[in-house]
Here is the input.
Amino acid sequence: QVQVAESGGGLVQPGGSLRLSCAASGSIVSTNVMGWYRLAPGNKRDLVASITGGGTSMYADSVKGRFTISRDNAQNTVYLQMNSLKPEDTAVYYCRYTNGPLSGYIVWGQGTQVTVSS
Here is the structure.
């Protein structure tokens, strides 16, 4: 079993920055992929960014150049650095863990609210 716990959400003004963290614990495998998704009112939960254990990352077009995903494998922690935040980035951000790209084993965090508003 794997558990994940997010932290770092909050209220920030447009143009500001936030960093989200997601710590995984339990029976973690080296092939895992971790990522961040977000859910805004009226939308579906969409991928923001993901990163493999080897460090290969991918981003949604809407956040490229503004968000950076990184990970510390020794701490089993993934980070999402969010810069130049926009009001449309407002959402609940969820951390997702999976044992691998084709694995059916998926664990979601409880979500953390990010609000971008003046």
Notes: The two ends are 41 Å apart (CA to CA). The first strand starts at residue 2 and ends at 7.
